[in-house]
Amino acid sequence: MSFHYEQQQLRAESVVLGELAQRFGTPLYVYSKALIEANWRAFSEHWPSPHQLCYAVKANSNLAVLNVLAKLGAGFDIVSVGELERVIKAGGEAKKVVFSGVAKSAAEMATALNYGIGCFNVESVAELHRLNEVAGEHGVQAPVSLRVNPNVDAQTHPYIATGLRANKFGIAMEQAADAFREAASLPNINVIGADCHIGSQLLNTAPFLDAADIMLNLIMELRSEGIEISHLDMGGGVGIAYQQEQSPDIGAYLTALRERCERVDNLTLMLEPGRAIVGNAGVLLTKVEYLKPGSEKQFMLVDAGMNDLLRPSLYQAWHDIKPVKQATGASSQLYDVVGPVCETGDFLGHARHIAAEQGDILAVMNAGAYGFTMSSNYNSRPRAAEIMVSGATAHVIRERETLQDLWKGEQLLP
Ligand code: LLP
After folding, report:
1. What is one Pfam family matched by this protein (predicted)?
2. Which of 199, 343, 398, 408 is deepest in the core (most CB within 10 A)?
3. 79-108 pLDDT, tens digit each
4. DSSP 8-state symbol, 372
């Protein structure tokens, strides 16, 4: 299953990746349906009832990916109306949607209320008041959870840590109880939950459990005042192994979380995993355009750049890079693997031992999460195509953008 070499060819399930590159061109994102499903089941199997798992759409929002998950009964964590419309188009149920994000517009709130989403994860008192108004105009009560910032150190890259006081997310712990009281007093707000999300790519689950303890104490305090919080949403953040790291054991994490939550009666637990569902289920295929021996370094120039996969440039993220064909006769040498974009920061990997020659295809591994969704048209580069493999079949799930797509909607002056 998943990505493996067989007869020296890297495959997605039973499809040879080199053949996909030939057929559909590069750069090319390729996902494994079986692996997405297996990753989902690793969560859903260990999840107690009542429960709700909401896949974080931002990790990979392709309609086919969302549809595969919707068929497994997934809920969805969205951060924009664009993501909401994708979920609906892909067959997701509005009532299983939670809406996160620090700066929701009134128009976004109205659309989400019309669809009847399950919960607004509100991040500030100002947002609470706006939602109260918008819900009033619609003659409905908005289901609300307040996102609390539990001030725990997620021990991850500073750009993806979100649970510290210094971050823009959520309501500070010291102000949380008052914010809940205020929410409970507003006529068009129905307080149903409390949520947090302390960061992404956590390899150690201790900070999640610390945060859960803090959230449970808060929920008990609020319930003692008659504010009936019925669910706790612990957000996403479970990390995956990009290099040789030990990724968290999902079963052990969920069991520990469940045990803690047993302290509080009738509490529905929710999670919003993104990366852990799709991260290792995708690769980015790229072609070696040139080898360029420099005076200090050797460069491997490839046809995918930071516009296709931003993570290395933005977070110094490490992704394994492998030739899709082994033992081609090329000798393994030390390269900086760099893209075609005119930026020094445009690289996929520094100082990598790779055996490949001009024209060979490489796979950038673990690119299924925050790969395509963070891609752009910078340098007027059309975005890559996306393929989903299922067994021996490859489905095009997004066509490569054309040059015409690049200037769609642009106008010359009259
Ligand atoms: N819930 C909330 C409220 C979030 O903000 C996020 C991610 C998630 C769930 C899903 O987290 P995950 O399970 O995927 O860790 N672009 C960065 C990651 C940014 C994550 C932002 N929030 C990267 O490529 O590493």
Report:
1. Orn_DAP_Arg_deC
2. 199
3. 999 999 999 999 999 999 999 999 999 999
4. G
